[in-house]
Each structure stands twice: as structure tokens, then as C-alpha cells.
Design goal:
globular; alpha+beta; Elongation Factor Tu (Ef-tu), domain 3; 2 domains; Aminopeptidase; binds zinc ion; 370 residues
Length: 370
């Protein structure tokens, strides 16, 4: 039952068209989701980032589960008949653009497929790569409209989700689902769990940086950033969610990472179907690193991702991203365990207390005269 509803949310969200700066469809989806839950409150900061919290008494330092709402995609700059000029906001290598199929999602609600006929890479003067697109037919396009790769709707095949935008809408889906499960638990001292959904991550964490500047995140919070991160042979898809220690640029808060690792290990002992991995995931950079750099306590949990940023390295063509459903369900379990165990009396001990305990138990071996 819980798995079914988690998959429904996943299938809906990972098919929504979004781009950095054009996250309105996800915002509307999340607000609708929240409005059917009377105890859930949604706030927006001045940059349009969302924070979800629950009414009623809460205990302990806030635990913020964070995910970004955008995905690499195009924004129309100019429209003349069937010919559009658009910029691409996100990290996709130049070779994937020529002749690729795209789809306009006009603000009027109209959608229309088209093809890239021209490509101009990013330069010192041009902050985003630009494309020329010829639409297959006449459509009402205007500057500011969103355009995505033309990819099939999300579908599940042999335990894998194939979708236009796993990164990071599968993170948003996991956060919402975990929030529901945590809310249903009758805990004596409910933890202060909140969800933060940011904008414009794909062009350099712009929404997250805005949230920090706006004072939208309590300084005492522990932030668990969720990501979909390029899978490597040593971080395979299907081997479980990843407790991510760092990224291509930096490492995250080592104490929070260690605590989540301990919680994952304990969960794997109780629940034989739960698997997890502890990895650095150097395929990209993550908002957790930005939060840590700005003085917050943050780490990351991520899903190993196939066709990262829609790049199929085998065919050299644009393709759906993919994740394992089992990893997604594992991530939800781990989030629920994290929220309920981080401050619990039976939480796994910190590294410091383990070290102290080891010394107390074994220091006698040093007593032999030398
Ligand atoms: Zn990304």
C-alpha cells in the first residue's frame, strides 16, 4: 500500500516539465499535495524556495530533508513563427545537442515537439549554451517558455524507473513520501522534520544560496540533501541508496554522515530487505557542499542514477534517466529511520563515543612494560 502510493508520486513528479527558474509545475504539485493534508504548512522565501513543516509540538533541532525542483532544460528567449531561440540551463555535453528532439511546454498549456537545428556553446560572454529549434508545427511560444528534451512519459520496466527527470524529482518524491510516513507515526516526542525544496540547482545551487541568504534555514538545523547522482561501477544502480560522503568538489559534515551511516547499518540489521552503500559519488556537485561551506550542518543521501542528465553514454544520444525502484523505497525507509533515530536514546553511538569506549575497554594492552 505504502509502496504503491510512493510509486504513484514518483511517476507523477518525474514526468513534470521543469527547468532552472521554471519550477512552477512542481511548486503547484507540492502545494496541491500539502493542501490535502491539514497538518502540513507550506512557506515560501523571497526566492520561491518552499519549506514544508507540520503543526503541533515538535522536539529537538530541526531535521531538514532537502531536494531541488529543477532539472536541466531549455528556456525560450525568442520566438519567430516556428523558429525558436532558447538557452540551456544545466550540465549536458555539447555533442548531445545537434539534431536532438525537444518539446515546447508553453505557458498557455500547449505542447509542441521540434528539432534542434543550430547550437552555440557557452562562452565567456554567453553564460548558457544556446540552440535554434524548428517546431514541427505552428505553436504559440513566447520568451520565458519552458522547453525540454522530447522523452517518453515515466514508466517502470523490470524494477527500474525510466523518466525524463529523476534528478531531482525522485528526491522530491522520496521526501514527500517519507514526510507522510513520519507524520503517521505516533511518536511521544515527534522530531521537527521539515522539507526544503529549492530552485535553480542545475546552474549552481542558486535557489539554495538564496535560501541561505534569506535566512530561510535555521542555523541549528541538520540538513539531509537528497540527490540522484551518476552511478559508477562501484556505486551500482540497485545496490541501495547511498550515504554520500562528498562530491566532485568537497566533503560533507562528517558527524552527520557518520550518524546516518550508523542508522543505515542498524536498519539493515532489522530489515533484511534494506541495502545501502557509503560512497563519495564524484560525478557532480551537490547542494550539501554549499550548505556546509556556508556554515550549516549538512550531508547527502542519493540514488545511483543511470543516463545522468539524460546523457546515454553508450548511444551518445539523449535518453530517459533511470533509477532502481528498490533504491527509491530504500531511501524512503532510510529517511524515516533518520528522522526518528537521529535524536533517539537508542541511536547508534557517535564516532567520538565509540573511540572513548574502545580506549576504556582496551587501554590495558598498553600497560605492559616495554
Ligand atoms: Zn542534476
Amino acid at each position: 500500500m505504502q509502496e504503491k502510493s510512493a510509486e504513484k508520486v514518483l511517476l507523477e513528479l518525474t514526468g513534470l516539465p521543469v527547468a532552472a527558474g521554471c519550477e512552477e509545475r512542481v511548486v503547484a504539485w507540492v502545494e496541491r499535495w500539502a493542501s490535502s493534508r491539514p497538518s502540513v504548512r507550506v512557506r515560501r522565501d523571497r526566492y520561491g524556495n518552499l519549506m514544508l513543516s507540520r503543526t503541533g509540538p515538535k522536539y529537538g533541532r530541526p531535521i531538514i530533508i532537502e531536494a531541488h525542483m529543477d532539472h536541466p532544460a531549455f528556456v525560450v528567449r525568442q520566438a519567430r513563427g516556428r523558429t525558436l531561440r532558447a538557452e540551456f540551463r544545466g550540465g549536458v555535453r555539447d555533442a548531445y545537442f545537434p539534431d536532438a528532439r525537444v518539446r515546447l511546454h508553453a505557458r498557455s498549456g500547449e505542447t509542441c515537439p521540434g528539432r534542434i537545428t543550430g547550437f552555440r556553446p557557452r562562452t565567456a560572454k554567453r553564460r548558457f549554451p544556446e540552440v535554434t529549434v524548428v517546431l514541427d508545427r505552428e505553436a504559440k511560444a513566447a520568451p520565458g517558455d519552458l522547453m525540454t528534451w522530447d522523452l517518453p512519459a515515466p514508466k517502470v520496466r523490470q524494477g527500474r524507473l525510466h523518466a525524463p527527470a529523476c534528478d531531482d524529482l525522485a528526491g522530491v518524491a522520496a521526501a514527500l513520501q517519507a514526510f507522510d510516513v513520519i507524520g503517521r507515526k505516533r511518536l511521544k516526542r515527534p522530531p521537527d522534520v521539515r522539507l526544503l525544496f529549492t530552485r535553480a540547482e542545475e546552474i549552481g545551487f542558486i535557489g539554495a544560496l538564496g535560501a541561505c541568504r534569506a535566512g530561510f534555514i535555521p542555523k541549528t538545523a541538520r540538513i539531509i540533501a537528497l540527490e540522484n547522482s551518476k552511478s559508477y561501477p562501484d556505486s551500482p544502480i540497485g545496490a541501495g541508496p547511498v550515504v554520500r560522503v562528498g562530491d566532485r568538489a568537497t566533503v560533507f559534515d562528517h558527524r552527520l554522515t557518520y550518524a546516518l551511516g550508523g542508522i543505515a547499518e542498524a536498519l539493515a540489521k532489522r530489515d533484511k530487505s534494506f541495502r545501502w552503500q557509503r560512497k563519495l559519488m564524484p560525478g557532480g556537485v551537490c547542494e550539501a557542499g554549499a550548505f556546509v561551506e556556508l556554515g550549516y550542518t549538512a550531508t547527502c543521501l542519493c540514488l545511483p542514477l543511470g543516463n545522468y542528465h539524460n546523457m546515454n553514454e553508450e548511444t551518445g544520444a539523449i535518453a530517459p534517466e533511470s533509477i532502481a525502484l528498490e533504491d527509491y523505497h530504500g531511501l524512503i525507509k532510510l529517511l524515516v529511520a533518520a528522522a526518528t533515530k537521529l535524536d533517539a536514546v537508542d541511536a547508534p553511538p557517535s564516532l567520538r563515543s565509540r573511540l572513548n569506549q574502545l580506549f576504556a575497554e582496551r587501554a590495558d594492552v598498553l600497560e605492559r612494560p616495554m
